[in-house]
Design brief:
binds manganese (II) ion; binds NADP nicotinamide-adenine-dinucleotide phosphate; 5 helices; single chain
Length: about 260
């Protein structure tokens, strides 16, 4: 198999990458940078996000595997001491995979240029230098006028990341849904937002039309974008999905329990 290994700069990740490289070559795999069939990410969930963005143009050809050098993550099924088991699983590979929804973001700017992004976790729109104001449309219909720090649109697998910090629900990744959460909305007699997270249906999209400022910040997963004046940003479930090689199954809710609740008292 043609395999790419993407590690982070940490000492532990470098050690695991070296071990993995040696074992994969010994069992006849080819290590490549371009056009891999399998991408093994070594680090944390953040490293998997980096790996995803590096290969997001060939998502239909590649499967991902995450090795975590710390605690178990949401995109990482393997721990650093299980390299041997992973290499054996790869030897017995029969192409098994599981796929999850992604977020498609299209921004149209006042100067008529546009930009397009795919997110694995979420995209946000924020204003740091004062209150963000934006009109919010769902499926083209006006929904609310938002004022506050920002809005976050997340995928089901992103629901345990930033979205959760905003009070969002944890969503099972088998659902094709997007969740919109508020970041510090202003609510008083003059300004009113729904003030609770929204989960949209598979055929719906959300549009933001910020009012007249040029100092908004967009984030897409770990990336920060300083866009020109925004006319409109549209968020929908992407046609593309991310595929993970699934050599063993871990229940989603077990993972949630492990990450956020921990051992029983
Ligand atoms: P980071 O600052 O290292 O990430 C913050 C934490 O989020 C890390 O512990 C990371 O795990 C974890 N994480 C990432 N994706 C997750 C997921 N799908 N479910 C549960 N936890 C997840 O930065 P990063 O590693 O580059 O990750 C970027 C992400 O950070 C963004 O996509 C956003 O979701 C999140 N973020 C959160 C907040 C917040 O909660 N207030 C603010 C900004 C960004 P690892 O340690 O395994 O990498
Ligand atoms: Mn991280």
């Amino acid at each position: 198999m043609k395999i790419a290994i993407i590690g982070n700069p940490g000492a532990k990740s470098r050690r695991v990458t070296a071990e993995l490289t040696e074992k994969l070559l010994a069992s006849g795999h080819e290590l490549v940078q371009t056009s891999p069939e399998l991408v093994i990410s070594v680090g944390g969930d953040g490293t998997l996000l980096n790996s995803f963005h590096r290969y997001s143009h060939i998502l239909d050809q590649v499967r991902f595997v995450g090795v975590h050098t710390g605690h178990l993550g949401f995109y990482t099924d393997w721990r650093d001491f299980e390299i041997e088991d992973l290499v054996i699983a790869l030897k017995e590979d029969s192409g098994q995979s599981v796929s999850y929804p992604l977020l498609d973001v299209r921004a149209i700017y006042a100067d008529a240029t546009s930009a397009h992004y795919l997110a694995l976790n979420e995209a946000t729109l924020k204003r740091l230098n004062g209150t963000m104001r934006t009109e919010v449309y769902i499926k083209g219909d006006f929904f609310e006028s938002f004022r506050g720090d920002g809005l976050c649109v997340s995928t089901p697998t992103g629901s345990t990341a930033y979205s959760k910090s905003n009070g969002g629900a944890v969503i099972h990744p088998r659902l094709d849904a997007l969740q919109i959460t508020e970041i510090a909305s202003i609510n008083n007699r003059v300004f009113r937002t729904l003030s609770s997270p929204i989960i949209t249906a598979p055929d719906e999209w959300v549009t933001l039309e910020p009012t007249g400022r040029d100092d908004y910040v967009m984030t897409v997963d770990q990336f920060v974008i300083n866009p020109p004046t925004i006319k409109q940003i549209r968020y929908k479930i992407a046609k593309e999905r991310i595929h993970f090689a699934r050599y063993r199954h871990m229940h989603f809710w077990d993972r949630v329990e492990d990450a956020f609740i921990g051992a029983k008292h």
